[in-house]
Amino acid sequence: MAYFEGVLSIIANLLLFALKYWAGIVTGSIAIMADAWHTLSDSLSSVIVLLGSKFSKKPADKDHPFGHGRADLIAAFVIGIMLLLVAFDFILESYDALKNRESSMFGSLAIYVMIISVIFKELLAQFAFWGARKTESKVLKADAWHHRSDAISSLVILAGIFLGKYFWWIDGALGLIVALLIGYAAYEIIRDSIYTLLGESPSKDIIDKLKLTCERSYPENLYPHHFHVHSYGDHNEITFHICLPPEMTIREAHEIVDHIENQIAKEHAYSATLHIDPNDQEHISIDY
């Protein structure tokens, strides 16, 4: 899915870049030229999608016992950094345009090019979002937001084209607006990838589902607690504690833990590791 989306994005973005760059030269618009480079950056991010997707599918080895799934997150982080650089470049160019009181003469060509850009970029965004929901790929989600930010920036420019003949500063102002939109998208992509790389607390929904699995697996209350989730792309590790009677034999406790871990793998696709605490008031009151 990520590979196909990446190839499709590269082809579409290169064609759109050429179209918008030509329109920017003809009209002399800094906003359209900046938008063209934004589209070209989408092609670079799609290359990263391809590389990240291919590398993340490599099986586990001696040096990477949990696989290479976090390459997906690193690729998403790189895309976010690229977006920040694009946004910063837009700010500088827009500032120069406003300072020098530069204006652009928009025409029918600019209108048609921006309409084409909005339609195609939103279609690419919708496809990437669909793929991200289906595969839970963060890099696909990051690429989708890259497409969406380009569609929004083209839409903003399209709206500004109709105001260009009334306000000389509209082109520079549009450049600044586009930069802010891209910068915010970059912030969200970088934040999400860093949070997952550093490790996140599992959501209440996940914890409730795991507790329900424990309840169905053993008749007594196990007081599951101290949950930790580690994501490696398609592979997810989860650890938590349960409480068992202190008089229980090691074999009995081992069989219970094995059964719960197998049920979690079957129901939630997590590789679980359980730690056993004695079922006494001290552990229950402190940890549960």
TrEMBL record:
State the family it belongs to.
Belongs to the cation diffusion facilitator (CDF) transporter (TC 2.A.4) family.
Query: According to its UniProt record, where is this protein mainly located?
Result: membrane
Instruction: Spell out where the chain crosses the membrane.
Output: 7-24, 73-92, 104-130, 174-190
Which InterPro entries does this UniProt record tie to the protein?
Cation_efflux, Cation_efflux_CTD, Cation_efflux_CTD_sf, Cation_efflux_TM, Cation_efflux_TMD_sf, CDF_Transporter
The membrane topology noted for this protein in its Swiss-Prot or TrEMBL record is:
Multi-pass membrane protein
Name listed for the protein in its UniProt record: Cation transporter
Q: Where in the cell is it found?
A: Membrane
Q: Which GO terms describe its molecular function?
A: monoatomic cation transmembrane transporter activity
Q: Which GO terms describe its cellular component?
A: membrane
Q: Which domain of life is it from?
A: Bacteria
Tell me the ranges covered by the Cation efflux protein cytoplasmic domain, including all copies.
Answer: 202-278
Q: Which UniProt keywords apply?
A: Membrane, Transmembrane, Transmembrane helix, Transport
Ranges where the Cation efflux protein transmembrane domain occurs: 7-198
- Which Pfam families does the record cross-reference, listed alphabetically? Cation_efflux (PF01545), ZT_dimer (PF16916)
Q: Which organism is it from?
A: Ancylomarina euxinus
